[in-house]
Amino acid sequence: xxxxxxxFFALATAAALIMLAVEPxxxxxxxxxxxxxxxxxxRGGQVHTFFGNSLRIVARIVNRGxxxxxxxxxxxxxxxxxxxxxxxxxxxxxxDGSTIFRHKGIRKNRYGPYFTLHFELPNTRPAGWVGNVFYxxxxxxxxxxxxxxxxxxxxxxxxxxxxxxxxxxFEESPTDLPVSKLPDLDALSFNITxxxxxxxxxxxxxxxxxNTGRTRAGFSRVGFFLSADRKLSDTDIxxxxxxxxxxxxxxxxxxxxxxxxxxxxxxxxDQLPPRFINRLNRGKTVSLFLVVDADDAVAERSESNNIxxxxxxxxxx
Length: 317
Prior knowledge:
mainly beta; 5-stranded antiparallel sheet; 35% strand
């Protein structure tokens, strides 16, 4: 037979359980009724890199919860270890300098779309960072806009690497990279846009330069050379923009292109070397060469694809 005290404790316990079931706290929400964001894929265009280089990443985020999310912010940082922390360095995007990528909402239990971003890596090694291997970490919902079932899996906590973090091996300089990892500048197209007028008047040219390599190409210069034959040689005449403008090509990220146009000055007919005059007097044309990275300022994967050519059909006078 139960004592009065035991009965009272049992009744009080039952009443408390009933109250919890009937009148739950307003702040209590079952985890299964919340979204749950986490990094699902993080891949990079290269594993070997250097400080001052650019970085191309492809990423995807998944919502493992049973409720869709609204839009949220994502940030990518460079970390000395595999876990996100306050001393990590936010990476800036090449296009607008922002450190935040705005991600649209993801439906319940669905993957978000793949997205590609280009970042600028720090120009120099951060003070106190020792070693060669550091990590890019994806920080999902960086401003906590989404109330999630778990908040401990948004910033490098995944057990599997390349889910939300990416290892990078930093070399001391671009020349220390394996050849296959170097940038590679190429002339994607080269055309004369204005052939009118005699020698001594400008030639309009247009071109597209691309970096087909796997790391960023530094500053370079395009050059133009007038040749009496179809072979580029030291005896050809270098031409320059008629308005004195620079032919410097800015730094190009992997797979990035740039379109350039110039009016290139040409010498008067009577000032051309005899081999040019003789050829033109026979009704022949001469060649205009475009040379990408004309000063060999960029160490490239291949130096054999920097030259393109077109024919020049200028009037003699």
